[in-house]
Design goal:
The chain is α+β, with helices and mostly antiparallel strands. The protein is about 20% helix and about 25% strand.
Length: about 230
């Protein structure tokens, strides 16, 4: 269970970093202490996706375009919402360090800062569609603003479905967030970064050759225990 201070930080900032949190237990046991773990979606073959995702830096994979690692390789990832192309993206995601790398940063911005810098009326008119059917999560047009005010974003797996969405897509592709972004290195075993996936966007910095041994695990949570 998170402390009162940690829960406050998660609510206020949209994320909380906990260094070396219970480093000797597995991520599922750790997640059950923090909140309700979920399996976020089903695959096209009807099977559930893995509860735990192991994230290891990879070179770009030619002819594959269904994951960020395959598309960007060791280059920087753009800001995004995890599973933005689902009807309701997961509430929270947790990243947990298995093999650390000081030179690789997970960067975070508040989606509220995005909305404050863009026309609110136009935001609510933006409609996207999933890029392709990677799963059975959704095949319907998706509003950029959903569930009473949360913002979803993914420049790769969401395609603009109207002119407002196209304008927003173009704006996000050139806007820089260096002045307001927060960044964290998952350096030590057990380092945890919990992100509110509906109030924050996150990205990953580029990976230098010496950091290719980095291993991070990820799970999704529907709620955080109080």
């Amino acid at each position: 269970m998170l402390s009162t201070q940690q829960r406050y930080a998660l609510e206020k900032d949209g994320h909380v970093f906990i260094p070396e949190f219970l480093p000797d237990i597995d991520i599922v046991s750790c997640g059950k202490i923090i909140g309700e773990i979920i399996t976020p979606h089903l695959l096209l073959n009807g099977q559930e996706a893995d509860i735990v995702n192991t994230l290891i830096p990879k070179n770009k994979i030619k002819y594959q375009n269904n994951t960020y690692s395959a598309i960007f390789g060791l280059d920087e990832f753009p800001y995004h919402t995890d599973l933005a192309h689902s009807t309701l993206p997961p509430n929270y995601l947790m990243l947990r360090c298995i093999e650390g790398a000081t030179d690789v940063k997970t960067k975070i911005i508040r989606s509220g800062d995005v909305m404050e810098n863009y026309d609110k009326i136009k935001l609510r008119k933006c409609i996207f569609k999933p890029r392709d059917k990677l799963s059975i999560m959704s095949s319907f047009p998706l509003p950029l603003i959903f569930d009473n005010g949360f913002l979803r974003w993914d420049s790769i797996f969401l395609h603009p479905a109207n002119k407002f969405a196209e304008e927003f897509h173009n704006w996000m592709s050139v806007t820089k967030w260096h002045d307001i972004e927060r960044s964290y290195s998952l350096s030590n075993k057990g380092d945890c970064l919990i992100i509110n996936n509906r109030t924050s966007l996150h990205s990953r910095s580029s990976v230098p050759d010496k950091a290719k041994s980095r291993v991070v695990e990820r799970i999704y949570l529907s709620e955080i225990w109080k």
